[in-house]
Specification:
The chain has about 180 residues and is mainly alpha-helical. It has 5 helices and no strands.
Length: about 180
C-alpha cells in the first residue's frame, strides 16, 4: 500500500509545512522562500513516509509533529535575512514564535489524529467487506441437524425431570 502511504505523507507534509510557515510569518518571521518550503516538505514527507506504515498513537503523532515543527523553525530561520515588518505585524519574540509553532503543532496534531482514526476505520471496514465477499459461500444452506436419539420406552418426563411445567391459570389464594 505504498501509494496510500505516500499520499498520506504528502498530505501531512503539506499541512504541516503550511501551518509552520504561516505560524512563523505570523510570529514576526519572514515568509520562507519557495525553495525552503519545498525542502521542508520533501524532508517531512520522507520522514513521515517511513512512519506511515500503520496506525500510530496520538502521543507519538504529537511527538513527531513537535520534532517536525522544530526542524521547520530551524530551516525557516537559518540564515534568514531580517526584513522590516509593517507596524503592528508580528510578535517579534522567540518565545512567542515558539508558541506559534506549538499552536501549529497542536492544530496539525488534532487534524492528523482525527484523520488517522477515520482512515483506519474505513480501511478496517473495507477489509471486512472484502473478506466477506471473497469468503466461500455454500450453495444451499446446511441440512438441519437430526434430533437427539431417544431410546424407545424412556418417557419425556425422565429426560425433562428438572423442567418445571406450570400449565393453566394460577390457583386462587386461600384466605
Amino acid at each position: 500500500m505504498l501509494p496510500l502511504r505516500l499520499a498520506r505523507s504528502a498530505l501531512f507534509a503539506a499541512v504541516c509545512v503550511t501551518l509552520a510557515a504561516l505560524a512563523h510569518w505570523f510570529a514576526g518571521g519572514t515568509l520562507p522562500s519557495p525553495a525552503r518550503l519545498a525542502l521542508g516538505a520533501a524532508v517531512v514527507t520522507a520522514i513521515t513516509a517511513v512512519a506511515a506504515g500503520r496506525e500510530r498513537e496520538p502521543v507519538l503523532i504529537a511527538l513527531l509533529l513537535g520534532a517536525a515543527q522544530l526542524f521547520l523553525h530551524g530551516l525557516f530561520t537559518w540564515h534568514a535575512a531580517p526584513t522590516a515588518m509593517p507596524p503592528g505585524h508580528g510578535l517579534a519574540s522567540d518565545v512567542e514564535m515558539e508558541l506559534c509553532h506549538l499552536t501549529a503543532t497542536l492544530m496539525t496534531g488534532w487534524w492528523v489524529a482525527r484523520g488517522e482514526t477515520a482512515l483506519w476505520s474505513v480501511l478496517r471496514r473495507l477489509a471486512v467487506r472484502v473478506v466477506l465477499l471473497l469468503a466461500p459461500c455454500p450453495i444451499r444452506p446446511p441440512a438441519p441437524s437430526a434430533p437427539a436419539y431417544r431410546a424407545p420406552g424412556i418417557p419425556y418426563e425422565s429426560v425433562l425431570r428438572h423442567a418445571v411445567v406450570r400449565r393453566g391459570p394460577p390457583l386462587p389464594a386461600a384466605l
